[in-house]
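2024-03-11 09:14:02 DEBUG pipeline.ingest accepted 1 chain
2024-03-11 09:14:02 DEBUG pipeline.ingest length=333
2024-03-11 09:14:03 DEBUG pipeline.predict start
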Amino acid sequence: MVLQREPAAAAVYGHLHVSPASNITVLVTVTNNDSGFSYSVDAAVNTAQKKSSFKALLHPSPAGGSYTIDAKCLSKTDASSVEYGCCFADCSKSTVKISNVTFGDVWYCGGQSNMALSLGYSFEKDSSREAILRGQYDNIRIHGVEGNMNIKQPWSTAKQAVEDDKLFDYSSTCWYFGESLVDELAAAHGDSRDKDLPIGLIHTSRGGTMIEEWVDKKTMNSCHDVCIVNGVTPGIQYKELVKPYIDMSIKGWVWYQGENNSANDCILGSSARKSGYACLQLALIESWRAAWSAIPGTTDPLAPFGIVALPESGNLGHPENIGAMRLAQTGVP
């Protein structure tokens, strides 16, 4: 796993099972595996929601290193803290551990089919595989959720993904972004430490989706002339693929979407008039930045947001719409 490096405070968070009337605390301990130094922080615990949760902000950490993070669920008593009254996941344990953690820059990749398209379908897949086996991209770690075009991929190094025969199932756009970023950092920083900066890639796309599925209700209601077609559930991808990562401090986002909105005769609109796709694209960026940066000192409220312009091949049989869609993607009036 890669957590966001300083100056941001990275976050560790999750769900709890809590016994009624329990006075709960979650103690999170971070251990540097190289030096043995460790520190602990108390997580904020929320038992008011249907699912109880915790979130701990870690000390801002420099890039690199190898860490282990433990979270221990404790029920407070007058005499002492004892391990009962709360538990994680399936309640088989009251302590969970994350191993092989490093700090670097974390990027969230989302969108529809072009983002989801697997690396195995790209022309340069074999070149990437050979470069990984040579150790060229040892500083990239990848993570992906299961979708209608991709398999679930827990955090792993690129080399581990090759050895497990899963690299070619990963998002090609997300991977090539990370690959290019590493190449540019190496060229810009030469022999400095930043050339080996750990890069974490999170892939969460879903083929065939529309932008209306990727925003919450408040954001969608801020725009007129939104496009709701049969089979589309507004906000569903926000709930399933965006919201679970909002508590994670990140460097920025890469977004590749628009084909289905362009092909369904949706109003592409104007951000100045609060209309159509142009309004939703700008509103999505603003709402995601606000959600991820809600706690000061975590994700930068002006974190970079990269948008992939649709190519000619992305018109899904409607080439007449591609120019207007590209303009709408920019969010200009």
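2024-03-11 09:14:41 DEBUG pipeline.report DSSP finds nine helices and 15 strands in the chain.
2024-03-11 09:14:41 DEBUG pipeline.predict end
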